[in-house]
């Protein structure tokens, strides 16, 4: 496939066109809302496959499929896009999840017959969000990245506030306040960074702002501005409290995009902006960030164990998982960084599946309270099986994709920080507790009254969940192609940070 074709621009524009088509559908054609949305998202998957074929995996550490055009020359802002292996992997995960969200939302928003206008608006917002997500994972201009970072809040705010549960407005406003606060602090840091750079018509290009000579104190403040915004988005302890409320009150499809995709922008920003732009400050802050990551791992897992609401439980598991991702990034070994990059993809798959299946359960029962379920393994065996596989992937069972990434994070971290890796390993044990106990409460034991006739996964729902289960199995047994995408960027990142890699095998010398 030709790399001269503007793959990334096409991937950004196509969902926007789809959203416009949905909003402009005449009243007589609105019965085709679902079909139109699904067609555009599947076309996006085809474009993503084309971008993958045009990408040279042998040079995955370099920015490819790049385009650079002047946008606001007087301010030094450019429309600059390009992806390395990590950006491409996250982009592909995102475009695969969106059509599954469309399928899952097929009967949402009261559309038992013809699609309602609510569903049409919801699907259009999902397409707008998809365009922003693709753009932010490929942005190579810091100001362009910031604009997208903030623009993503708009569709998510309405997807939570207009289409969610009983406390949707509270959850949407809380999400917006947290995100805007981090974004405004980041904007100050973006402007200050620009003033340290070469200026000119392309003064915000990431390449032009890397390896600058910045006063050490100022560099630490700039790092803090970027890191705080990304930590809120990630989300990390202690700026994570918006997530459980959002997940509890959003629709399942919104939660898939919010937790499975959008939150990855935080860890992606740490990896691709914080580390290369502020290498000395990153090394200085690493011990503190590692402590925060470990607290997130343990704290998120313990709170997940204590949850009664199914959606909040899944949200807290993500706080724990993001702790592993951040730990691997700031452990500064090629193994841990590659593991974190792969973890971002695998978390999107497993958490996306958990939210979708949980949504199907809640829609049938009319309740998110775990105590309202029980004994469903006999009634809905397919749903029970898929939930179990997704849960086992979340607890990193060998043979499923998350195991590979979590193993790499822990092994890579142990090579440089043995104590941190040992403490973080407690998160694996706690994950087994919250996953297996949740499965036990929902699916085992006697069937609760009123659940005897609950329908199992329908064909459409199986198509929504099936690809995620298949991806977990394939990447669990054959992770090589995905690792080929994320390993070279990990080595490049360590060179930019200015640290010497510690091979994972060196951990043997630190074993007690």
UniProtKB/TrEMBL annotation:
This is NADH-quinone oxidoreductase subunit M. The keyword Transcription regulation does not apply. Its main location: membrane. It comes from the Bacteria. Residues 139-429 form the NADH:quinone oxidoreductase/Mrp antiporter transmembrane domain. Belongs to the complex I subunit 4 family. InterPro entries: NADH_Q_OxRdtase_chainM/4, NADH_UbQ_OxRdtase, ND/Mrp_TM.
